[in-house]
Every structure is written in structure tokens, then in C-alpha cells.
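Before a colleague's protein record goes any further, I have to sign it off. What it holds is a sequence and that sequence's fold in C-alpha cell form. My question to you is simply how this chain folds and whether the C-alpha cells agree. Thanks in advance; the entry in question is below:
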Amino acid sequence: MTDDITLYDNYKECMSLLEERFENNELDALKAMIDLYGKLKDTNFHNLADSIELWIDAYPKKELLQYITDKDDSYYNVLIDIINAKRIRIGIK
């Protein structure tokens, strides 16, 4: 249990740092969030994964679609769906 708490705290701190990094380099920060999302795959840290999904929804960049697709991992399909749905809603290709 203590290991889970420590891991959660580490991931939460990482997310906070990525949010700060976003101010200076949006695309790199979003890519790093996607990488963090992959690390959350085998955890129950749903609030962190949900937070990343919200960031991706807010910034549905085309470059992120390619970045995720290159990972060739179905776990990321939810992020692809979020980006595609948002791009359709706001009318961009």
C-alpha cells in the first residue's frame, strides 16, 4: 500500500510539472502527458488519467494523433477518439 501511495505521489508530481511545462512548450508537455498516461495503464490512478484526457480534449493537436498512432498500442485509442471527436466538433481536420 505504501508503494502505491509513493507511486501515486510521484505521478501526481510529474503531472504538476508537466502542467507547468505546458506554459513554455505546449506540444512537448502534451506528449509527455501522453507518455505518463501509458504509465498509468496498470494503476488505479484514474483521476490522473482523467486529467490527461481533459488536457488532450482541450488541445486536440494533429501532431498528437501521429504521436499516439506511432505508439501502436490500443491502450491509447481513447486518446485518439478524444482528439478525433473534438476536432470534428470544432470543425478542423
